[in-house]
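Same chain as my last thread, 438 residues:
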Amino acid sequence: MGGAILLDSGKPSSERGRFDILVAAPMASLVYSRGKLRGVNLPVDWKQDEPPFQLLERCYTKLQQNLDTLGELPFGAGFVGHFSYDLGRTVESLPSHALDDNLLPEMQIGLYGWSVVIDHEASQAWLLVSDLVSPNDVAMLKQQVATATTTTTQRHAFTLTQPFKSNVSEAEYHQKLAAIDEYIRAGDCYQVNFAQRHTASFEGDPWEAYKALREKAPTHYAAYFDTEHGAVLSLSPERFLTVNKQQQVITQPIKGTRPRDPDPQQDQAMIDDLTSAEKDRAENVMIVDLLRNDISKSCALNSVKVPKLFAVESYRNVHHLVSTVTGTLAEGKTPVALLEGAFPGGSITGAPKIRAMEIIDELEPHRRAVYCGSIGYISLSGEMDTSITIRTLLAENNTLHCWGGGGIVADSNSHAEYQETYDKVNNLLKTLEGLSER
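reply #2:
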């Protein structure tokens, strides 16, 4: 069918997810790449130099519907796709030092008139078809979906042909953190999220790699996106922005990480160390304050609250410190406006956001592409759910990229931060290296 996207709850292994959403064959598409828009069958007139968020907002407003028939199901029809980190250049004026060596567009969104939704809590699967789909196409769609569940496509095994190599040596990493420390001490910023990129060459089907990764790293904001340029494999544990049926806004930044330990006592010691660490708590609060400000642009006056600070979430390889910020969407504001006003997510930039992004562009050798952007949906019923694309890989031209980073503050230890970047992605890298050894 083409244009397939899986928003994956990680079930049955993930503890927090509930719904899987599968879409394919978009009715329309909106692509923004290197300063140019490309639209196919969009519901509004558009110009190639129009700001991408503005065009998406107009498309959403044109099609928005009041769909009360979905019940607890999160999505029936609407927009699904990815927003790369570098789409932030359309929101803010930023320098261009880092090398742009990827093909993936900065925004790639499809309008989907139907979806398959799997509710793992109720053990039910639904084919949801909106009135955007003509009656003549509904029967054909049912047949295609039914056939897809009973046929098996021949897949090519995935293997790395060269091992992962970072774009930053250990010595360079420490030099760059020293530069960040100078910026912090000079008062330019309080925190900078700095990442390194691991790159390997591969052969075979990225879908096979994704299936292996979700077995080792089940997360409730996972996603697989099959694009014309390659594939996005995301095993993200982090929510960016959610808008529910009551127009309540939720964002849950992750700041603070410790590795898991197979010994239960040592593992609990890791949790205790994380929850008591002044550095991690201060880092978390900085980003909470940033996100409070970002979502306030689109939320009703005095509605923004912080109901939860420093909650611990545990995954197969790490413990994370997670806070929750909530609000209520203001009258006249849309989920698209909320997304634009907070993009990219503050948890993966630093504070203040614009200066941190300038420093990131100066010190990271390559642009981030999909890493630290977002994947998700904007339903025509007014709901939205999006991730922060950490623990995310990009497969293009038989080349695979995987990023690992962390927030740097005044009292960061350079060697500990370097190790943390590996703690976050080692389970991904080692899983794929293990596939190559079979």
